[in-house]
Amino acid sequence: MQPRDRLTAKEIQVATLVWQGLTNKDIAGVLLTSEQVVKNYLRTAFDKLGVWTRLELALYVAGHGGANWHVQLGNGLLPTVAGWNVAVGNELGQISNGIAIKRE
Predict the structure, then answer these.
(1) In the chain, pLDDT over 90 holds for what percent of residues?
(2) Residue 56 within a domain
(3) Is residue 103 part of a domain?
(4) Where are the alpha helices (DSSP H) in 1-104?
(5) Would 55 be classed as within a structural domain?
(6) How wide is the angle at C-alpha 83 spanned by C-alphas 40 and 2, nearest 5°?
(7) DSSP code of residue 103
(8) Could you list the residue range(s) of the whole structural domain that residue 68 is in?
(9) Residue 88 belongs to some domain of the structure
(10) Pick from 64, 91, 29: which is nearest to 14 by CA?
(11) What's 54's domain CATH number?
(12) Within the chain, which residues score under 50 in pLDDT?
């Protein structure tokens, strides 16, 4: 079992959003939660993956497939058919600060 196989679906989502360059505040807006909850997800993801910083987390995600790194996970927490991404601007309904979830 790889370290990434221990991540929850929310930790995977937060890690991917960090890789996409979002701040904790932006991630909280996407997840409709508080920045403290995002920090908690990050802390547990850091611990599980053995990284210390957001940069190391982003590099880990990039090194394991980038936006599709969850597809390679063996835990089946996220669907492999319909991906998701973050779109900036008016492509879809805005959630907060111009950030919206974009289904691919």
Answers:
(1) 53
(2) yes
(3) no
(4) 9-19, 24-31, 35-49, 54-63
(5) yes
(6) 55
(7) E
(8) 3-77
(9) no
(10) 29
(11) 1.10.10.10
(12) 74-84, 86-104
